[in-house]
Specification:
The protein is α/β, with parallel strands linked by helices. It has 15 helices and 13 strands.
Amino acid sequence: MKSIFKALVFILFLLALISCGSQKQGDNKITIFHAGSLSVPFKLISEEFKKENPNYEIFAESSGSLDAARKITDLNKDCDIIAVADFMIIDKIMIPEFASWNFVFASNEIIIAYTEKSLYSSEINSDNWQDILQKDDVIIGRSEPNADPCGYRAIFVFQLAEKFLDSEKLSDKLVSKQNTVIRPKEVDLLSLLETGNIDYLMIYKSVALQHKLKYIELPDEINLSNPEFEELYNSVSMTVNGSEPGKEAVINGSSILYSFTIPFNSKNPEAALKFALFLSNPEKGGKILKEQGMGVVNYCSVDYKEKLPKELSEIL
C-alpha cells in the first residue's frame, strides 16, 4: 500500500513539474502584431532581444496596421504588443475599449521607389515625377488604404502635391489611374517592383533603403516627414473602414509616426513591457531602427502619460 502511495505522490510531483514548465513557457511567449514596414527592423530587434533574454519566445505577425488592429478589435486575437505605422490607428480604433495608452517610437517618410527596369527610370526626378506617374504606360503600385496606412498616405501625398504644385485634379488623376496595382500592404508590392511588373511604388523611405531600391525624395511639404508642416498635413483627409463592420473613420494627414501599445487582452503584459523597453531604448531597439532608415522618437501625448507603465514614462 505504501509503495502505491509513493508512486501516486511521484506521479503527482511529475505532473506538477510539467504544469510549472508549461506555465513558464506561456509566461515567456510574446505575441506581436506589427506593420509590414516594420518586418525587417522588428526581426533584427527580436534577435537582439533574445540574446539578452534567451528564455523568451517571440511570435511576430506582419500585416497592414489597420488589419493588425482589427485582429484585436474584431477577431479578439490575443496580442501582447501591437506596433502600427500610424499612431492615430491606436488613438481612433483601440482606445479606450482595447487599450489605454499609445507610445510613439519611430518616424518615416513617403518616397517614390523604382528600379532600373522601371519605364522612364533614366528621366524621372524630383521635378517631373508627377508627369511620369501620369503616363499611360507607367504602372504604379500602392497599398490598400482600408488595410494599410501607407495606402492612405500615398493618397495624402497626391493631395498635398496637388496643393504644393498647384496642379488641378492631380490627386484625382493619380488615384483613379487605371494602371495601378493595389495590395493589402506596401511590402507585398516589392517583388512586383523588383521583377518589373510595376514601375513605381509609393512606399516608406526605410523600406526602400532596406531593399536597396532607387527612389525619388519629395519635398517636406508633401512627404509627411516634418512636424513643422503638421497644419498643412492635417488639411488633407480620407475615410476608411472603422473598427467595426459598417462603421467608418476619418483619417487626417499627419507626420508619419509609428506607435505601440500593450492591449488589454495581452496574456503576458510583463514580458510585453520588457520587449517595449528594449524597443524604446536608443542604444538597443532605437539603434537598429536608425540603421534601418527610420527616425527614433520617444513620445506620449499628455492624454495618456498617467496611464503609461511607470517604466515607459521614465524614459520620456
